[in-house]
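Explain my protein.
***
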Amino acid sequence: SNSSINDSSNDSVESYAEISFVESVSEDGELEQQLVELKRQHAADIALLKEEMVSHKEQTKNHTKSLLRALLCLENEENLQVKTGQEILDALKYLVEEAENFGIPELYTKARILATNAVKAKPSHSVACLKVYELYPDLLAATDGENLALVAIRKDPKLLLSDESLVLLSSRMLENILKDEKLQTDEYALFEIVQSWSKVNEIRFPEALELMKYIKLEFMSRQELLEVENSPLVSTDRLLSAYKAQALMAEKKTGFSCKKDRHHSLANSRNWKGLNSDVMVGTGNIHKTHVLDCDLLQSGNVYKWSIKFVEGSDRYVYFGVIANKESLECDTWLGNQTGGWSLSAYDSAAYYDDEDCVRTKSLSFGRGTKVTFTLDLTGDGTLSASTNGGKAEQLFSGMLAKASSLGASGFLPAASVNWSGSKVQFLGFE
């Protein structure tokens, strides 16, 4: 019996050993399969990681190239002059976005510098610069670049008529420009801008109709009204109102036969033409002569008015008159053009055509000075001036003959101020 027990035990041990061996082989096979699977997954992860590294490297390379292109725009004026407005906008957008994404505030500074330099190098870049300020108003506070762009457009609104500018202009940007009281242009020019802008894309037409409320048709000439009457932007009712307003203004003008009526009309004239304000502020960019928005000062009358030098540097401040003529030269300082007579704040000299220069002693003036002019057109035409109510001094004579030789039919009070921040104010006729 013991023998049978031992045999049974041996059989059991051998069976257990066989089972263990089989299980062991089975486990090793599974482990091997798991190992193969892990290797395969690992290889896939490594491949994916390599792809991501290559992609990241390529992105970094592209970022670096874009950043270098943006920074190269800052290099020199010639580089900026050959760039398109879209290229300038792309560079500005990249600098701002990278500054935000990577927390590099220095790139904001670079963007502001680029905007300023771009407008200085090429005024037609103004729209692109204003566009980036519209896109990122919270990230780019108002700076010299934005101000320079606005000044460039105020001086030459026709910059907006380029194909590139018309595409970049948004309705909000155009509305702000049309509402700008410092814009130096006429209503017909503004109408051409709105009409051209509306033709870029048909979806702009409803917005253009809304923008037309800022265009004063009554201030257009009759020929200009004939030009706009076929535009879908101008309604029949608005045209009718414009013609009525012109008819009323014509009636008033024909009533200026007596001296009293004429001076009553001039008493209401206070704004500089194109500025819609009695205040003129220097920009520091180019010389500009502005005339008063009033009726012509004509022979047979005596006119008296005052202008105040409010604040700023006395350099490039000139007060006087200009003869009305077909080609009014306003892109220079008063007295430098033919048909302009002026008194200079800087050197107390009276100028005509930049040749006849008369030095004065008692008429020097600076900030806070009120200068009163008297234009006597009852004789050969003289212009006198006084400061702060003092004694008047004659500056010019024989003005009617000179104006007549230019084909001028009268005179207009005028002034020019160039130094940035300098301010003068028309105080009115007496």
Q: What stands out?
A: Residues 252-265 have pLDDT under 50 and may be disordered. The two ends are 149 Å apart (CA to CA). The chain is about 50% helix and 15% strand.
